[in-house]
Design a protein that fits this description.
Elements (H helix, E strand, L loop, with lengths): L9 H10 L7 E3 L6 E3 L7 E9 L4 E2 L4 E6 L6 E2 L8 E4 L3 E6 L11 E8 L6 E7 L3 E9 L9 E13 L3 E2 L3 E4 L9 E5 L5 E2 L8 E10 L4 H4 L7 E4 L4 E16 L2 E2 L2 E12 L4 E2 L4 E2 L5 E8 L4 E9 L1 E2 L7 E10 L2 E9 L6 E6 L5 E8 L10 E8 L4 E4 L8 E6 L2 H10 L4 E7 L8 E6 L7 E10 L5 E2 L3 E8 L2 E9 L2 E7 L4 E8 L2 E8 L4 E7 L9
Parallel strand pairs: 3-11, 18-25, 29-35, 36-43
Antiparallel strand pairs: 1-2, 3-4, 3-8, 5-7, 5-9, 6-8, 9-10, 12-13, 12-17, 14-15, 15-21, 16-21, 17-19, 18-19, 19-20, 19-28, 21-27, 22-23, 24-25, 24-28, 26-27, 29-32, 30-31, 30-33, 33-34, 36-37, 36-40, 38-39, 38-41, 41-42
Length: 541
């Protein structure tokens, strides 16, 4: 097939990709020299776009990230070119992939999997993602930069914390803490002398031991935003529900760069609790004698395991630190002090956003608390788009009031959690999301943007008069400082919301690891674009 260079301006590029869907054996040249785009696999039924956000600056992570998939439906994750996708990487903070074409996600048959992300510069984390509808879906994963400070987060790394031998174990006790200050609220771990350290495959390790312990104070909103996957959880027995946290920690060790997974002896771990933490069972500040469950996290499956309930103790020192202590830890993990509350298994709750002019909004669903300056974490955070302004919430908390906030940009969400500035464009309070039947709540948004809805019709036209306008493709727009989903072209039509007539915008599409970007000026509320196709392709012949 001949290549028309003009066909790869963004909207015309979109058009030619779409109009090539029916051509099962043609290749076309991309704008990147030497790259050939294979057309036949483009039209995915369900696509997923994940953003990885550096929490400290509120921007996309541009360090190399290694991403893998786990959980219930990991086998249903594919690339945008219809290849199985178990792992991948990104250096731009955005990952695009798809769900198998023979699967149609719904609220009654969701696709659930875990995105696991690791980096040299960021704390390893993961997020459980639930896709409840076909089309384009967007999610975010919050990342903790190991070289910056986040309110409520303390992290301490030691490159030479001791040594170990695969036969005799550690040469001396290894003690690691999230803070070098004895008065700080922190996490501490002690590995006894003579303990053999093993990797994920059970192999005994020899060499220099490096440690990093990171502690998250549950009274700080920015710290809570770092919680892996959110506080709507699934446990190892497939029970679903919600956490209210008293604090959590990530404990990491390595031997000559190989991650430590387990120990031959019991390891002692102590987790402090900020004394201003509110116990949801009593409604007052936590105190010595309170009972607190401890959970460990499997980042590959996104599930939590109850490690038992522990009694809060107070130290005898002047700080009277509140602590729980586990003396028989045998594996490394995220460790989390949480009260667990059951969720609704079968209720499909919809949050519909109405009003205002917007391309996308960022929604946060969080517990209501007994005091205005107290937060108990988020149940959900992510995007809702103007082309499909309904959010499906799964496994909502039973008989617990929540607040849903809509923000016009990620920076507004960032300022809310980090600086206490609540520039929301809509708030919805619900006493109990858990109902006996499916229900839709409406959040009214009042944004400060203006613009028109632009209907774009795109066709490929052959010299013989044949018209081709079949297929689907996701389109992004650069607006308000962000690349964001603008919508999905379906059979030659896309509606672009809240744009200014006469203004030039940047658009881009993603295919097979490449973005194709170009500018386009909106001239009216209806744009009809006919693309002249070369006559020597199979469809036009």
């Amino acid at each position: 097939m001949n290549t028309y260079k003009k066909l790869f301006t963004i909207l015309t590029g979109i058009a030619i990709i779409i109009t090539a869907f029916a051509i099962q054996s043609c290749d076309i040249k991309s704008p990147v020299e030497g790259v050939t785009v294979r057309i036949k696999n483009i039209p995915r039924t369900t696509t997923v776009r994940v953003e990885f956000i550096d929490q400290n600056v509120g921007q996309l992570v541009t360090s190399p990230l290694n991403v893998s998939f786990g959980g219930l439906d990991a086998a249903k994750v594919i690339s945008t070119t219809n290849e199985p996708l178990a792992s991948t990487s990104t250096s731009i903070g955005i990952l695009n992939f798809a769900i198998a074409d023979d699967v149609t996600p719904s609220a009654t048959n969701p696709v659930e999997f875990v995105v696991v992300v690791k980096s040299n510069n960021y704390l390893a984390t993961s997020k459980r993602i639930i896709v409840t509808k076909p089309g384009a879906n967007g999610f975010t994963v919050n990342m903790v930069n190991l070289n910056t400070n986040i309110p409520g987060v303390t992290s301490n790394a030691v490159s030479n914390a001791g040594s170990t031998n695969s036969t005799t174990g550690t040469s001396a006790a290894i003690v690691a803490s999230s803070s070098t200050s004895s008065s700080a609220v922190s996490a501490r771990v002690t590995v006894p002398s003579g303990t053999i350290l093993r990797d994920a495959n059970g192999n005994a390790l020899s060499g220099t031991v490096a440690t990093r312990v990171t502690y998250f104070d549950a009274t700080e909103p920015a710290s809570l935003a770092s919680f892996p996957g959110g506080f709507a959880i699934r446990d190892v027995d497939n029970n679903v529900g919600n956490f209210v946290s008293a604090g959590f920690a990530a404990i990491d060790m390595s031997v000559n760069g190989v991650e430590v997974e387990s120990f031959s002896k019991n390891v002692d771990v102590q987790l402090d609790i900020n004394p201003n933490t509110i116990n949801p069972e009593t409604g007052v500040k936590i105190k010595a004698g309170d009972q607190l469950p401890l959970w460990s996290y499997d980042e590959d499956t996104g599930s939590w395991k109850n490690e038992g309930t522990y009694t809060v103790t107070a130290s005898n020192g002047p700080d009277r630190k509140l602590t729980i202590r586990k003396t028989d830890m045998t594996h490394l993990s995220w460790w989390n002090m949480d009260w667990f509350y059951d969720g609704c298994y079968n209720t499909n709750v919809k949050i519909a956003v109405d009003g205002g002019c917007w391309q996308w909004l960022y929604l946060v669903v969080e517990f209501q608390t007994p005091q205005p300056d107290v937060q108990w974490g988020y149940l959900y955070n992510g995007y809702v788009y103007s082309y499909d302004p309904v959010l499906n919430l799964m496994n909502v908390p039973d008989n617990r009031p929540v607040t849903i906030r809509a923000f016009q940009g990620w920076n507004d969400y960032y300022n809310y959690y980090y600086n206490g500035v609540d520039n929301n464009v809509g708030v919805l309070n619900v006493d109990d999301l858990c109902q006996t039947q499916d229900i839709t709540y409406t959040l009214q948004a009042a944004t400060n943007q203006t613009g028109d809805n632009i209907d774009v019709f795109i066709r490929g036209v052959c010299p013989n008069g044949n018209v081709l306008d079949e297929g689907t493709l996701d389109v992004e727009i650069f607006k308000n400082g962000y690349w964001q989903l603008a919508g999905r072209i379906v059979d030659g039509f896309i509606r672009l919301n809240c744009l200014q007539i006469g203004q030039e915008y940047q658009f881009r599409v993603y295919y097979d690891g490449e973005y194709y970007t170009e500018s386009y000026t909106i001239t009216s509320t209806t744009e009809n674009i006919d693309i002249d196709l070369p006559g020597d392709n199979e469809f036009c012949e």
